[in-house]
Design brief:
Blueprint: E1 4-11, H1 18-26, E2 44-49, E3 53-59, H2 70-83, E4 88-94, H3 100-110, E5 116-121, H4 132-137, H5 140-144, E6 147-150, H6 159-167, H7 187-203, E7 212-220, E8 224-233, H8 236-243, H9 248-265, E9 268-277, H10 285-290
Length: 296
Amino acid sequence: MKTKCGYIAITGRPNVGKSTLLNRLIGQKLSITAHKPQTTRHALLGINTTATTQFIYIDTPGIHRDGKRTLNRVLNKTAASAATGADVQILVVQALTFDKHDEMAFETVSRQDTPWLLVVNKIDRVNPKERLLPWLSELPAAQAAAAVIPTCAIRSENIKILESEIESRLPEAPFQFEESEITDRSSKFLASELVREQLTRFLSQELPYSISVEIEKFEQDVKLIRISAIIWVEKASQKSIVIGKGGASLKEIGSRARKTMQTLFDSKVHLELWVKVKDGWADDAAMIRSLGYESQ
């Protein structure tokens, strides 16, 4: 039986719904999501295997202009390198919005020699719906794309249509991963991301951009996974925000993260969180590398 297999890079500016789209395309939660720009900081593989096709999606950090810190530059490089060599590109934009960051993402996919699709996300926010077509008719990215698919990723609207458009453009090739695999990332990596997701969601506007999570211990036996994680911040005042009055914030963040881990890992989890200060870590190339960010 002939099979198809290929890489699909999901590109776009921050906060357009790339991670939510990935989760819908693979049929389960893998990539972390939050209403805060730059939630995604790594190129994350999400794999969906059908009877005849293996879709290998790459969720990328949001492409953005004007970021002056070392971490900003690393994230842009990560997104651009993920696009290079992919079999299909997806440019995700938010309906009725196209700014300088979208333009930079458009330039990134346009430089590739592979077909790319324009996904217009969050169409549920367009009111009245008749506003969408005139906007698309004047959008250069819509004219350049191989296909335009309006979606609402959070509601799974038109996801099957998008999947069909992708599948038609993938090459014939053997599968690269086992059919049961959904990512190439380790459980340790996923645990750190789930903690960071809850930090982002719970603290919202209070949360400093320069925050990261490092897993110190990940021990698994038949009945329990024991995890110890360090939350890195840049200032003592940020440490106070994360911990909260009487440790209340940290306790709630830990409880939420533990519940999501238990669902993903299908196991009981014991989670310990510690908050430490590392002045200026987001501009420290060595620290950025030690935390696993792709700096090449």
